[in-house]
Design goal:
Blueprint (H helix, E strand, L loop, with lengths): L3 E5 L5 H16 L3 E6 L5 H4 L4 E4 L21
């Protein structure tokens, strides 16, 4: 059983796709499997480099106030 690297992506520009491609190549050279998920359909060349690909309908960008994360902290 190989170790697997999980990548969640939102690559909506060519620059982001190129960075993701370089990261996938680096991870594959380490002998690790890759599971990539994305709400955006990516180029087939990129998908075929991964061992698993999940095309989701989730939109990971939070829209205020419908989806948000609150963090409270106390500074001493």
């Amino acid at each position: 059983m190989n170790k697997i690297v999980l990548i969640s992506s939102y690559c909506d520009t060519d620059d982001k796709i190129e960075i993701l491609k370089n990261n996938i190549d680096t991870i594959k050279n380490l002998g690790l499997d890759i599971m990539l998920n994305s709400p955006i359909l990516l180029p087939l060349e990129l998908i075929s480099k991964c061992d698993y690909f999940f095309f989701t309908k989730d939109y990971p960008v939070f829209i205020w106030p419908e989806r948000a994360v609150y963090l409270w902290t106390k500074v001493l």
